[in-house]
């Protein structure tokens, strides 16, 4: 798993962002790269200053997208790109009215860029802001919030970046980097032990996590060799029993186990679950249900 970046922008997925921006601009400007309204109403040489501003409070993510959108617009239009001064870094809290970035240059270029940069930044800032609420609830428990693979197609790297910007951690990027043994794998393989052994034989270096729904299943997974457990849909009491039993089991052998909780978790119980002694809490809603944070581009 990837720990939260102290400076989120240092891990910004530029290549993934550029691919997304190219697709978004193609959608917005069509094959000829035209904004018919701006082309008809604004002289090509008209210049102005624009502010990217927050309309509501949140945790910023996606600032580097602004430059990529301006770059994409310049390539499509052949015009000069506005200058850019980013005032607030990703991972910082913003309040309504805060100026995130200042653009100066051709008005047409700014307006062609407006919707694409706001769509992406509002989405990523929403994910970061939602993640920060979970991170705040878990502060002091020793537990860290994780994301899942429940991401928007084509935006996984960016949404997982936004989770890091909000103080969370990435669990796995896809099916290729961590093996997760769930109930269907157990059924198909003929049991937890068989599933775990098959993965270890085929992919000896990959991290393997086993999903369990009870203390008994956790101990069975540990006996099979697992040292990373995902406790699914457990009550606080059952989770606490599972944590205590699992840690006692591996302690006798001088080993360690990582324990994650998932399933049906909400912000109002996050602290209680985090205090059970788990290491991780995975929340699909960080990426599949985060509302956007309202951002705008205002000419001044």
Report on the structure:
The chain is α/β, with parallel strands linked by helices and 300 residues long. The protein is 44% helix and 18% strand. The chain is built from eleven helices and twelve strands. It has helices at 14-29, 36-41, 65-77, 107-138, 156-165, 183-189, 192-202, 215-224, 236-251, 267-274, 285-288; strands spanning 47-54, 58-59, 83-86, 93-94, 99-106, 144-146, 178-181, 207-212, 228-232, 258-262, 280-282, 295-299. The strands form three sheets. It has a six-stranded parallel beta sheet. Strand 10, helix 10 (267-274) and strand 11 (280-282) form a beta-alpha-beta unit. Helix 1 crosses helix 4, helix 3 runs antiparallel to helix 4 and helix 4 (107-138) crosses helix 5. The longest helix is centred in the middle third of the chain and has 32 residues, at 107-138. It is elongated, with a radius of gyration of 23 Å. It starts with 13 loop residues before the first helix and ends with a strand.
């Amino acid at each position: 798993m990837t720990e939260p970046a102290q400076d989120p922008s240092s891990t910004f997925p530029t290549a993934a962002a550029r691919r997304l921006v190219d697709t978004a601009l193609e959608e917005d400007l069509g094959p000829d790269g035209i904004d018919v309204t701006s082309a008809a109403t604004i002289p090509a040489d008209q210049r102005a200053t624009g502010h990217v501003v927050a309309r509501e409070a949140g945790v910023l993510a996606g600032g580097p997208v602004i430059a990529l959108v301006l770059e994409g617009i310049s390539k499509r239009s052949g015009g000069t790109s506005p200058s850019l001064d980013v005032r607030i870094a990703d991972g910082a809290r913003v309040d309504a009215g805060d100026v995130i970035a200042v653009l100066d240059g051709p008005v047409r270029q700014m307006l062609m860029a407006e919707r694409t940069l706001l769509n992406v930044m509002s989405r990523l800032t929403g994910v970061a802001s939602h993640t920060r609420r979970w991170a705040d609830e878990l502060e002091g428990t020793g537990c860290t919030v994780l994301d899942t693979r429940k991401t928007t197609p084509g935006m996984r790297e960016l949404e997982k970046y936004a989770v890091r910007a909000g103080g969370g951690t990435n669990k796995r990027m896809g099916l290729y980097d961590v093996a997760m043994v769930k109930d269907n794998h157990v059924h198909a393989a003929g049991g937890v032990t068989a599933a775990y052994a098959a993965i270890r034989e085929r992919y000896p270096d990959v991290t393997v996590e086993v999903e369990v729904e009870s203390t008994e299943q956790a101990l069975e997974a540990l006996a099979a060799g697992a040292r990373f457990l995902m406790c699914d849909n457990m009550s606080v009491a059952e989770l606490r029993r599972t944590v205590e039993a699992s840690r006692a089991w591996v302690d006798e052998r001088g080993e360690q186990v990582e324990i994650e909780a998932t399933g049906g978790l909400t912000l109002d119980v996050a602290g209680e679950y985090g205090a059970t002694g788990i290491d991780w809490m995975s929340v699909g809603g960080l990426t599949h249900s985060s509302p956007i944070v309202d951002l705008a581009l205002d000419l001044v």
